[in-house]
Write a structure and sequence with these properties.
This protein is of the alpha/beta class and 263 residues long. It has a single domain, classed as Acetylglutamate kinase-like (Carbamate kinase), CATH 3.40.1160. 37% of the residues lie in helices and 16% in strands. It has an eight-stranded mixed beta sheet with strand order 3-4-2-1-5-7-8-6, sandwiched between helices. Strand 1, helix 1 and strand 2 form a beta-alpha-beta unit. Helix 1 crosses helix 3, helix 2 packs across helix 3 and helix 6 packs parallel to helix 7. The longest helix has 24 residues. It is globular, with a radius of gyration of 18 Å. The relative contact order is 0.17.
Length: 263
């Protein structure tokens, strides 16, 4: 018997630096406006501040970038990035609640409670409001931080808000046995199956800090917390609403522990 799909009550969408363009932001806002009608507990984690800062300053990412360079670019780029989101979400009558966080905000019980409270308040706001979070690169302590990238932040955030589903939007449509062959996509990763490590390298994204291996590691960790995770391409038409609202099998799904088959 076919099981009817039920959209999650709380979900996180994360989009990486290399996937962000003005067109993608506009399309993502349109999709999230549609999703928000059914998923009130919806949060977006968006990278891209550093890259927006580089663009504003007329420079490209270089191997010699210092920590101060990156923090400077982030401080320049973050208001530009959030302004781009505000412009698009405003078209649908949706407000944006910006959140810039560091590991200290998750490591402190008091701050965790405060962050949780703000998120819950945004979920029940009279006017539709979607929180957009990013790491606060300006003040983050790079020597001690546990956020290796926004994939890690997304995982901690999803657990904090008790999300049922997380969607990582990437350049690649999920995990592939052969990177250059879309037909080798792994549709489903059962909980506890670590074979994905054989097909995912250590490389990071072009302009960001993350990469497919970090996404898979975060996805596997979240699956152990009973949170379903999907890694899919941001370039697929209506990808977010098709996955979160309609349950379509796009990209690679890491099944939560509750779906584990009896031994």
């Amino acid at each position: 018997m076919k099981t009817l799909y039920t959209p999650p009550e709380r979900a996180v969408i994360k989009i990486g630096t290399d996937s962000i363009t003005p067109k993608v932001i506009a399309d993502l806002a349109r999709q999230m406006a549609y999703i928000h009608e059914k998923v009130r507990g919806l949060v977006l984690v968006s990278s891209g501040a550093v890259q927006y800062g580089r663009i504003d300053q007329g420079v490209k990412k270089e191997p010699g970038e210092t920590v101060a360079d990156k923090k400077f670019f982030a401080s320049v780029g973050q208001p530009l990035l959030i302004a781009a989101y505000i412009k698009e979400f405003t078209k649908y009558g949706i407000s944006i609640a910006q959140g810039l966080v560091t590991w200290d905000d998750f490591d402190s019980l008091k701050r965790r409670r405060q962050l949780h409270g703000v998120l819950q308040r945004s979920f029940r706001s009279t006017k539709p409001t979607i929180p957009i979070l990013n790491e606060n690169d300006f003040t983050a302590d790079d020597e001690f931080t546990r956020f290796t990238d926004n994939d890690h932040l997304t995982a901690d955030l999803a657990q904090l808000m008790e999300a049922q589903k997380v969607l990582f939007l990437s350049r690649t449509n999920g995990v592939r046995r052969q990177l250059d062959d879309p037909r080798s996509r792994i549709a489903v990763v059962e909980h506890g199956d670590e074979r994905w490590k054989n097909w995912v390298g250590e490389s990071t994204s072009g302009n960001g800090k993350g990469g497919m291996r970090n996404k898979c590691k975060s996805a596997a960790d979240l699956a152990s917390e009973n949170i379903e995770v999907v890694i899919a391409s941001a370039r697929i038409q209506n990808v977010a609403q098709r996955i979160l609202i309609h349950g379509e099998c796009i990209g690679t799904t890491f099944l939560p522990i509750s779906h584990r088959k009896p031994e």
